[in-house]
Amino acid sequence: MFSYIKDWRRRRIIKRSHITPAQWEAAYARLPLLQRLSPQERHDLRDLAILFLHEKSFSAAHGLVLTQHMLLIIALQACLPILHLGLDWYEGWSAIIVYPEGFVPRHTVMDEYGVVHQTQDALSGEAWQQGPIVLSWHDTEHAGELDGGNVVIHEFAHKLDMLNGAANGFPPLHPEMDAAKWASAFSAAYNHFQGQVHAGIPTGIDAYASAAPAEFFAVMSEAFFERPEVVQATYPDVYENLRQFYRQDFLAGYKQRV
Asked: Which spans in the chain are helix H?
């Protein structure tokens, strides 16, 4: 009964949306990443973005003014990873904070010797467990351009990773997936990638993926949607696991439509 009411409520929200076709077209035109979607996928992504905008709260920082166009740019990219998973994968948190440009948060961390440090690093995005996602609009505005980097997908991949605890590169898998195969594929690829980065060998994938297993998963998720051919060619086992997890195959769909 609860599921039926929830579905009915969501259909009602979609039907009552005041976002115009022209506004949707302008947002899609700004995101080459989405040109690989089929007409049905574009329709489904639009409906998911409507619900996302309804259920999440946005706030701007440092004088930034959020427009409808900006919200659509964020929502469409945020919902792409869950296009075939559903909005419930983003439950448990609600806030999205957008800065004009990169931001410098202050964090307290303890090193291996028990010494506490204050760190301040410039960031383009940040995801907090059971807390907000923080984005730089400057970096968000230039995401979705098929250059391999996408701060929105990166941070929302962290949110998926955090569903079963702290981000560690091991999100909750679907029942039909093999956890041992996931661990084997990602561990081998991560170790190899670290070696490539340390040796200064170009990979076509953001070197930040070598920072930690959680960052490897998030960066590989970016590349999976932005440059799937690079992921498949470099780490085919990782590509296959991501294909199963996201239940999408941009590379196959693109090949069929060209």
From this structure: 2-15, 21-29, 39-55, 68-79, 137-141, 151-161, 179-198, 213-226, 228-234, 236-246, 250-257
CATH of 168-258, one of 3.50.50.60, 1.10.8.280, 3.60.40.10, 3.40.390.10: 3.40.390.10
Q: For residue 195, what are its two tokens?
A: 């070696």
Quote the Cα angle for 247-238-219, to 5°.
90
CATH class of 1-146: mainly alpha
Q: Are 115 and 107 in contact (CB under 8 A)?
A: no
Which residue matches tokens 């590379």?
A: 251
Domain with CATH 3.40.390.10 in the chain: 168-258
CATH 1.10.472.150 intervals, the chain: 1-146
Cβ proximity of 143 and 155 under 8 Å: no
pLDDT tens track for 178-194: 999 999 999 999 999 99
pTM for this entry: 0.89
Assess contact for 67 and 102: CB atoms under 8 A: no
